[in-house]
């Protein structure tokens, strides 16, 4: 069995967009699980995504008490044998992979946000670190982004960074 994943972060609604882009909502409909790495800003974004499917999310530094009451700071789930952890912030990019190996020793894939910069690296012990960027607030990036992937038989496959 395979599980289709949509990875997003830093939606910052309504500050950066009025609503989620239709491309994101279609991807959520096609996914078995939506992973959101924080900075939703409006609780309504969580409500909307939950109408499109199952959501695994965390709160970010810009999220208020309403979202913090519903979401953890760190979320963990094993999907098709792949051990995921989700967190908003990982700190500076320098030595990130080494720090995250120490912080998340029992994780195969760490999904994070905060910087709005798409990121895909592998730590020294083999953990994949993924930042999907932002579908609504590109900051200094050329385009808005999200990621899709498939978890299957203990592996993360078909990882794709999507430009919106």
CATH architecture: 4-Layer Sandwich
In which order are the strands of the major sheet placed? 3-2-1-9-10
Strand content: 25-35%
The proportion of residues forming helix, as a percent range, comes to 10-25%
Number of strands: 10
Instruction: Say what the CATH topology is.
Output: Purple Acid Phosphatase, chain A, domain 2
Shape: globular
Termini gap: 29 Å
Task: Identify low-pLDDT runs.
Answer: none
The CATH class is Alpha Beta
- CATH 4th-level superfamily: Metallo-dependent phosphatases
Helix-strand category:
alpha/beta
Number of domains: 1
Mean pLDDT: 96
Order of helices and strands: EHEHEHEEHEEEEE
Largest sheet: 5 strands, mixed
Rg (CA only): 14 Å
Count every helix, treating DSSP H or I runs of 4 or more residues as helices. Answer: 4
EC number: 3.1.4.-
InterPro entries: Calcineurin-like_PHP_lpxH (IPR024654), Metallo-depent_PP-like (IPR029052), Phosphodiesterase_MJ0936/Vps29 (IPR000979)
Enzyme class: hydrolase
Domain Calcineurin-like phosphoesterase: 4-152
How does this structure look, described?
With 164 residues, the protein is an alpha/beta fold. It has a single domain, classed as Metallo-dependent phosphatases (Purple Acid Phosphatase, chain A, domain 2, 4-Layer Sandwich), CATH 3.60.21. The protein is built from four helices and ten strands; from the N terminus they run E-H-E-H-E-H-E-E-H-E-E-E-E-E. The strands form two sheets. It has a five-stranded mixed β-sheet with strand order 3-2-1-9-10, with helices on one face. Strand 4 (74-79) and strand 5 (82-87) form a beta hairpin. The protein is globular. The model has no long low-confidence stretch (mean pLDDT 96).
């Amino acid at each position: 069995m395979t599980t289709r994943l949509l990875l997003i972060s830093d939606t910052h609604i309504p500050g950066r967009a009025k609503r989620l882009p239709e491309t994101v909502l279609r991807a959520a409909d096609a996914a078995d699980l939506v992973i959101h790495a924080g900075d939703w800003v409006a609780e309504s974004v969580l409500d909307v995504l939950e109408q499109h499917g199952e959501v695994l999310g965390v709160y970010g530094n810009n999220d208020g008490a309403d979202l913090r009451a519903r979401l953890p700071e760190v979320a963990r789930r094993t999907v098709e044998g792949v051990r995921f952890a989700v967190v908003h912030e990982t700190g500076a990019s320098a030595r990130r992979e080494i720090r995250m190996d120490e912080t998340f020793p029992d994780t195969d894939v760490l999904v994070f946000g905060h910087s709005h910069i798409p990121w895909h690296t592998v730590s020294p012990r083999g953990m994949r670190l993924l930042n999907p960027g932002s579908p609504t607030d590109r900051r200094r990036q050329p385009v808005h982004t999200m990621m899709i992937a498939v978890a299957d038989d203990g592996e993360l496959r078909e990882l794709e960074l999507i430009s919106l």
